[in-house]
Amino acid sequence: MPTTADLNDGFPATKLFNQGYSYTYDDVIFLPHYIDFPTDSVNLSTNLTRNINLSVPCVASPMDTVTESSMAVSMAALGGIGIIHSNNTVSEQVSLIRSAKSHRIPFACTEIQFVSPDDTISSGDVFDSSPCVFVTKNGSKTDNMLLGFVDRVIWEGLGDKEARVGSYMEKNVVTMPNTCSFEDVAGYLTAKDVDFVPLVSKDGEVVDVVGKADVERIRGFPKVGLPSVGPDGEFLVGASIGTRESDKERLGQLVKAGINVVVIDSSQGNSIYQIEMIKYAKRMFPDLDVIGGNVVTMYQAQNLIQAGVDGLRVGMGSGSICTTQEVCAVGRGQATAVYKVSSVASQSGIPIIADGGISNSGHIVKALTLGASTVMMGSFLAGSTEAPGAYVYQDGRRVKKYRGMGSLEAMTKGSDARYLGDTAKMKIAQGVVGAVADKGSVLKFIPYTMQAVKQGFQDLGASSLQSAHDLLRSGTLRLEVRTGAAQVEGGVHGLVSYEKKSF
């Protein structure tokens, strides 16, 4: 009769990750454990930092083709968080943060149109992106004097399309505060039987326009977790900064704008520049949580923990558009990096963010089980409706641009400081510019992805992230390394053609 020890397949993580190999997520596979709970009992709530909790372990990366205000709002609405990039001027980043913080529901209209009473509307194209055009005294969004609006019906009924807007606009504009909840807005539209309502800030600025079609669209999305909301009732929003002296001034402006967490953005975080920035941020803004990184070794992690970070970002060269490992011969396989860094970070109670290498729900399961508290995603989100940029068609496919912050294109806007190359005469690329396929809204595919993650946790016998971490560290969860053939067998194979739909 075999003993329990004889029935142990695979290897514990302590043995697998101490053999001198650098493993990626695809290199390793977890062996199934024992199930004694339903999928819906899996709890994915987690810690982003020492002091910030999320109901969904998802973070949108601070990249200029991934996270601006629309992405930040939608991620917070789902229960995750978006980190708004710093590859822009301080005023531009502050504007994006204030825009995100002014919302209580996901963006319904991303391109609100404004005209002055003396302007004319010569084309109906302006109504393609917004249900109406608002009229203000000077024709700008920043003008707080809302005089009226023009919708497509009013405009199409005009005999003279060259008439000044002030002569035919609807002057009776009913608005709602931007602090209203989604249900409040939906209830108003139904009760008053109106097609849309503008949401305005306390200063009178039009923040969004919500129509009946938007209500139906948002209600049709699956629910995944409680929204990420701060003590002030606003969505949680993060922002990135660099390690230059000028970033100290930037940080002060971001704090005034209302950020809840700051990410110090460096490709190699174990530097005197970052350590000094961490200490400065904690000294000047002790209530602000600071995430350091990127790191991939225990030594790197320990240095930043001693400097005072509240969270760590793990990954170097594992992103789909990153060429750091190829160009600089430095980095680490992401599975090994996550396990090693989490081993030391957990001893100090510092949550880690697995940043890079996420292509599917299985990678998220592996990252979280290996010790991460959240996953940071770039390419996984870049093709979504909420990502910055416009869709184009490439070889018959609808795509969006996605570029690495180490690409020469991104470096021309200032991201070279992330690679400590802003003072160098010659710029060396550590990333590429590419395109990713249209994925629709994150409000749809993130909930389905999280359901797949829950099923993975169920197969592991882990009902929560903490449970998964405990099972891994105790040696109860076992792993094996997959051969190339095993990786092929683990995916779709042997078919002449197929259509792959995840949901």
Rg result: 24 Å
Distance linking N and C termini: 45 Å
Low-confidence blocks of residues: none
Total number of beta strands: 21
Overall, the morphology is globular
Helix content: 25-40%
What is the structural class? alpha/beta
Sheet of most strands: 8 strands, parallel, barrel
Q: Beta fraction of the residues?
A: 15-25%
The helix count comes to 17
Mean of the pLDDT scores?
88
Major sheet: arrangement of strands: 4-5-12-13-14-15-16-17
Describe the structure using short key phrases.
single chain; 503 residues; alpha/beta; 8-stranded parallel barrel; 3-stranded mixed beta sheet; 17 helices
3D structure, described in words:
With 503 residues, this protein is an alpha/beta fold. It contains 17 helices and 21 strands. It has helices at residues 13-16, 69-78, 90-101, 152-156, 182-192, 212-219, 246-257, 272-284, 298-307, 324-328, 334-345, 361-369, 379-382, 408-411, 442-460, 465-473, 484-489; strands at 28-30, 46-47, 53-54, 58-60, 81-84, 113-115, 132-136, 146-151, 176-177, 196-200, 206-211, 238-241, 261-264, 289-295, 311-314, 352-355, 374-377, 392-394, 397-403, 433-437, 479-481. The strands form six sheets. The protein has an eight-stranded parallel β-barrel, surrounded by seven helices. It has a three-stranded mixed beta sheet with strand order 6-7-8. A three-stranded mixed beta sheet has the order 9-10-11. Strand 18 (392-394) and strand 19 form a beta hairpin. The radius of gyration is 24 Å and the shape is globular. The chain starts with 12 loop residues before the first helix and ends in a 14-residue tail after the last helix.
